[in-house]
From TrEMBL:
Subunit structure: Homodimer.
HAMAP family: Lys_tRNA_synth_class2
Organism: Dokdonia pacifica
Classification of source organism: Bacteria, Pseudomonadati, Bacteroidota, Flavobacteriia, Flavobacteriales
Designated name of the protein: Lysine--tRNA ligase
InterPro entries, per the entry: Aa-tRNA-synt_II, aa-tRNA-synth_II, aa-tRNA-synth_II/BPL/LPL, Lys-tRNA-ligase_II, Lys-tRNA-ligase_II_N, Lys-tRNA-synth_II_C, NA-bd_OB-fold, NA-bd_OB_tRNA
Listed NCBIfam families: lysS_bact, PRK00484.1
Underlying gene: lysS
Length: 563
């Protein structure tokens, strides 16, 4: 492993510390009794404190030094004075260990007393310190000039998402996002717990990927010698619990869908699903409004929450409009009780790409998604979906061909999906069979038939309403983040490109190619300054690694940089 100059220097310091008998990674408990926040809130002059955290900055001025220590709650100023730390003749702990062998990023424990500087900043006078963990890689260090311009920020998304541990250390706003995410889930739990509902857990590995229309991830269980799927939804298991006698259950579930990735979709995502017996979708809309209003107030103290250029108001009640009414309003096409062919022709007339594998449900979904969805910025319940779009939903009590389903749209995106649940086992079997026909037509997102779930329904499920809320998307909306990657600690990423390990001959040629990616072979050889033997080894090595390619044409031999 090739080390940078700074990394090598830090490893040399590590060795020196060990030679001095200092363990750079000690095992014993360190008796922390204060935090940066507590120190500032409960300040008392001369109070003795023990704190720990990362050394994030320091200004050494001979025998004294001001520094900043960062713990889980923020930063606090600390003051290192040689004579306070080294009360005897031996000053090596300050002169050698602190000044020469500690680095920005090291974890240190500090015992000290509180005082206030002449400019009024609460500070810890260090009486003793302990190295708790030596940092071998330098942290990015943003700099701010006199005009307030920031340089060397750690803001490249690729690096930030891959190295979230660094992102959290150097970008305080990132940590605040994830604190708010936890507050969201805690508020939802409190809301449902107060209603007497039970938080449960259901299987992630499932024999049938049911509960939604999506492409699943597949795996194999060796001991049972059967295929299994990572769940695309937990709906059918939660309904089994309603059959079993629970009146209200909910689960924060990790779901997995083997589909595309973009700024609002990740293949692994978190959803909260809740099911309540003896309720319908009207009750669920009322309850959802109250829940989101409570979440907004908990996080922001107001129901008005900024998101990009918009301000979303989560104050109940929310607008309600049928999906077919929305399509008619925004496209002029009335699709109620129209045939599949008529709907397909309407989609084509609207300029949408459709094919023969798409049934009525997918066609309507495509029309709404492309022509209507983005127009609903404020929270809006899109209700009464066609039967073909809702294989797990009870038919509408008064509107032929529709179901009692809603999707909650916020800022032009779906935030929640809910139904009056279908509890007629015969109707449910027919709906599953219709999904099977779609699968046979080529729809790889059509639902499987879950025979055990049908058996559960045959034992009887009470009237029930259920909902699924996308927690990642809710976190985006509530923290004003435009990308789902910003609210996931470790979003899915493409494999990291392996760093090139080149010898000196290869490096000499590679550096020239970086500046001139396509160059005549003779000119490249001359520019490299290598001997014939060094040149041969270098160019062969680069071509073998796939870094460079040599091609021949009428003009001669040309070397091209490949990666």
């Amino acid at each position: 492993m090739a080390l940078s100059e700074q990394e090598q220097v830090r490893r040399d310091k590590l060795s020196r510390l060990r030679e001095m008998g200092i363990d750079p990674y000690p095992a014993p408990l360190y008796p922390v009794n204060n935090t940066s926040t507590k120190i500032k809130q409960d300040y008392t002059e001369g109070k003795k404190v023990i704190i720990a955290g990362r050394l994030m900055s320091r200004r050494i001025q001979g025998s004294a030094s001001f520094a900043e220590l960062q713990d889980a709650e923020g930063r606090v100023q600390v003051y290192f004075n040689r004579d306070e730390i080294c009360t005897g003749e031996d000053k090596s702990k300050y002169n050698d260990v602190y000044k020469k062998l500690l680095d920005i990023g090291d974890f240190v424990g500090i015992e000290g007393e509180l005082f206030t500087t002449k400019v009024g900043e609460i500070t810890v006078m260090v009486k003793d310190f302990t190295l708790l963990s030596k940092s071998l890689r330098p942290l990015p260090q943003p700099r701010i000039d006199e005009q307030g311009n920031v340089y060397d920020e750690f803001n490249d998304p690729e690096l930030r998402y891959r190295q979230r541990y660094v992102d959290l250390v150097v970008n305080p706003k990132v940590k605040d996002t994830f604190v708010k995410r936890t507050q969201i889930t805690t508020t939802i739990r409190d809301f449902y717990n107060e209603m007497g509902f039970l938080e449960v857990e259901t299987p992630i590995l499932q024999p049938i990927p049911g509960g939604a229309s999506a492409r699943p991830f597949m795996t194999h269980h060796n001991a049972l010698d059967i295929p299994l799927y990572l769940r695309i939804a937990n709906e059918l298991y939660l309904k089994r619990l309603i059959v079993g006698g629970f009146d209200g259950v909910y689960e924060f579930a990790k779901d997995f869908r083997n589909e595309g990735m973009d700024r609002t979709h990740n293949p692994e995502f978190t959803v909260m699903e809740m099911y309540a017996a003896y309720k319908d979708y009207d009750w669920m809309m009322d309850t959802t409004e109250k829940l989101l209003e409570k979440v907004a107030l908990k996080l922001h103290g107001t129901t008005e929450v900024p998101f990009g250029e918009n301000v979303i108001n989560y104050k109940a009640p929310y607008k309600r409009i049928g999906i077919l009414d929305a399509i008619k309003e925004h496209t002029g096409y009335d699709l109620y009780q129209k045939s599949e062919d008529e709907i397909r022709e309407a989609a084509k007339a609207l300029g949408l790409e459709v094919d023969e594998t798409m049934g009525t449900g997918k066609l309507i979904d495509e029309i709404f998604g492309e022509k209507c969805e983005h127009l609903y910025i404020q929270p809006t319940f899109i209700i009464d979906y066609p039967v073909e779009m809702s294989p797990l939903t009870k038919k509408h009590r008064s509107k032929e061909g529709l179901t009692e389903r809603f999707e909650l749209m916020v800022n032009g995106k779906e935030l929640a999906n809910a139904y009056t649940e279908l509890n007629d086992p015969i109707d449910q079997r027919e709906r599953f069979e219709d999904q099977l026909k779609l699968s046979e037509k080529g729809d790889d997102e059509a639902m499987f038939i879950d025979q055990d779930f049908l058996r559960a329904l045959e034992y009887g499920m009470p009237p029930t309403s259920g909902i699924g809320i996308g927690i990642d998307r809710l976190a985006m909306f509530m923290t004003n983040n435009q990308s789902i990657q910003e609210v996931l600690f470790f979003p899915q990423m493409k494999p990291e490109k392996k760093a090139l390990e080149l010898n000196d001959n290869e490096k000499a040629i590679y550096e020239i190619l970086k500046k001139e990616p396509s160059i005549e072979l003779g000119a490249l050889k001359t520019a490299s300054g290598l001997s014939n033997k060094g040149w041969d080894k270098g160019i062969k090595g680069l071509t073998k690694l796939g870094v460079a390619k040599v091609t021949k044409d009428d003009a001669g031999l040309t070397v091209t940089l490949e990666k």
